Amino acid sequence: MNNLWAEPGNSRLVASAKSIQTDWLMTDDALKQELKQRGIIVASFEDILDWGYNWGRKNSLWPLQFGLACCAIEMIAAAAARFDIARFGAEVFRPSPRQADLMIIAGTVTKKMAPLVVRLYNQMPEPKYVLAMGACAISGGPFKEGYNVLKGIDRYIPVDVYVPGCPPRPEALLEGLITLQKKIAGQRLFGKDLPRHANPEAPAEYPVPAYGPHDLVPPSNPGVFCPPTPSRAE
Amino acid sequence: MSPLLPQTVLDRLHAALPQARVELVNNPSPSGQHALLVHREDAVQVAEFLKNDPELLLDYASDVSGVDYPEYLEAVYHLFSIAKKHGPIVLKTRTGDRGADASVPSLTRVWKSADFQEREAFDLFGIRFEGHPDLRRLLMWEEFEDFPLRKDYVAPNDCEYEPTPHGDIVQKAAAASASPVPQA
After folding, report:
1. Residue A105 belongs to what H/E stretch?
2. Which of A100, A115, A225, B174 is buried most deeply by CB count within 10 Å?
């Protein structure tokens, strides 16, 4: 590999432009890395398209202006001058879900509020992302054993980034945003392992739970909610 | 300014409304906030007297609470006077039972501030306030049927996943993880 450039007799490199075969270049990640270190970027048309598309998306994530509890105060602090979420291109809080890319679930989701959150998520255009901010949005937090708090919004909608804390500091929210940006940068438009929004098999919207006589119906969406099996010491 | 004692209020009540069934409930705790227990049929009459009597002028109900007892439910009002700057006077009424007769008269027509708080007590304890102008659930959704702050309330078991189980949750979560999540 290291001698690739040193051997003028390498037939693949001296092939004419007409007959050049590029498949082996595209699939050999170690070679691509080696070439990149030498200042040569090997990319397919799809790669360039992915890169440009994702670069634009990840640097202008517009959050939904949507706060549920005390975490929203930290989200507001992150948007204000000291922490300044505008440094990451996410300062345009949209008052309408139709214009938003990112839903920051900032606070406690009560069972009375949960259907409205799911409906707002359904109204957002693709591609859309969800960031669960704080212990309550992740799992119910200190209200987990109560009767009126949803035990995590991931029971109904897919969550991309979890930001723990009670509440998380603005720096933690920014860290979550950067994590999401990295996730977006790695998503592909073509080929295998497509993200949810590019996958025609994935559902376009998620069922809104109904108010039941004792609880929300259903208590969770089995298509979305797949908790790990906990191992418990007896 | 001497504090307003429940006994003083009771004496004035007995003098003005001799037929009203009111008694003093002593509170043995250090705070000693003794309460006036009024029979529910006389509650509106007594409340109007407490509000309008020139010596008492209890014109502000700061708080309405519900209490769950084994035989009955109780609505507790904390009354202050903005005009005379005294209070609180604790006024209690009891329902007949915890089921069909779980009602007390609404005092919203006397103290307007009791409106939402009576709705809250109705929502969480199931105390029906007869004569309330708009008795709907306040916090839970309208389709909800239970009364969550009653002692016999059983919360829905949706603890299928508990990362750090403790207490009763350990058993609940173990039972839930043994059986698959029910499909709606």
Report:
1. strand A102-106
2. A100
Question: Distance between CA A184 and CA A53 in Å, rounded?
Answer: 10
Of B144, B174, B184, nearest to A213 by CB-CB distance is B144
Its pTM stands at: 0.81
Summarize pLDDT for A194-223 with one digit per residue, the tens. 888 888 888 888 999 999 999 998 888 888
Query: Which tokens is A210 given?
Result: 């109904």
Q: Can you count the helices (H) and strands (E) in chain B? A: 4, 7
Cα–Cα–Cα angle for A220, A221, A224, nearest 5°?
120
Contact B72, B127 (CB under 8 A): no
ipTM of the complex: 0.79
Which residues from chain A sit within 8 angstroms of residue B144, using beta carbons?
Answer: 211, 213-214
What type of residue is B108? T
Closest C-alpha to A155, from A211, A101, A206, A98: A206
Alpha-carbon span B62 to B79, nearest angstrom: 6
Question: Which residues of chain A does B173 touch, with a Cβ-Cβ cutoff of 8 Å?
Answer: 230, 232
